[in-house]
Design a protein that fits this description.
single chain, alpha+beta, endopeptidase fold (from Nostoc punctiforme), NlpC/P60 family protein, cysteine-type peptidase activity
Length: 222
């Protein structure tokens, strides 16, 4: 501070000037060092985070087990239904054989007598093989929608029926289809309870002629 006479009131000596210069220099160095340390710390932190992420990514991950496919229940039901129908058809044939067709032990034909509760005529025999109520409906009754449904001759399967329901009780007849007799399907093997004889198993061609009164039917329980 200059006074009246233009001289410094508090002149700085050489020692004071040197001290101030030293303090200023030390402050600059300290500030630079702090900035350097801070910079190194941030850099180290970033590098560590990257290394950690890379290490985690390299770890083997537990793979999710694939879900097991659920079986198609509808397919099983369809197969069971088909198998059940095949068994029912085989049972029809098995029952037909219990009347000993074509042997001396066959059940003799009769419209008035019965065998094990079923009439010993053709419709009574068929009723027995299908497990219908005793003594069984007659041939016309078997064509009812309660018991059967119409099918074509080409659709015949084991246990199906071929019937002539027209005429009188002396002309109507029904047989049980088992299998085709040849590849040309010109005849088939059938079980029947025929007049003046009884239970038989023989080759038939009923219903195969275009004008035949015999028609194919499928029992409702098959």
């Amino acid at each position: 501070m200059k006074g009246k006479h233009g001289k410094d009131r508090f002149p700085l000596g050489p020692r004071m000037t040197g001290a101030l210069f030293g303090l200023a220099f030390f402050g600059v160095v300290a500030s630079t060092a702090h900035a350097s340390v801070g910079s190194d710390s941030d850099s180290g932190s970033g590098s560590g985070s990257g290394d950690k992420a890379a290490a985690i990514a390299a770890l083997p991950h537990k793979q999710k087990k694939p879900e097991r496919a659920v079986p198609d229940a509808s397919g099983d039901k369809a197969r069971a239904k088909k198998s059940g129908a095949a068994n029912a058809r085989s049972e029809v044939i098995a029952r037909a054989r219990t009347w000993n067709p074509g042997t001396d032990d066959r059940v003799r034909y009769s419209q008035v007598r019965s065998h094990n509760g079923y009439r010993a005529d053709c419709s009574g025999f068929v009723s027995m093989t299908l497990g219908l109520e005793k003594p069984g409906p007659n041939t016309q009754g078997l064509t009812s929608s309660r018991y059967t449904e119409r099918i074509s001759m080409d659709e015949l399967k084991k246990g199906d029926l071929v019937m002539d329901a027209q005429g009188t009780n002396t002309t109507r007849h029904v047989v049980i289809f088992e299998k085709w007799a040849n590849s040309g399907r010109t005849s088939y093997w059938a079980y029947e309870q025929r007049g003046r004889y009884g239970t038989d198993y023989r080759e038939r061609d009923y219903g195969l002629d275009s004008g035949s009164q015999y028609k194919a039917y499928r029992p409702k329980n098959l």
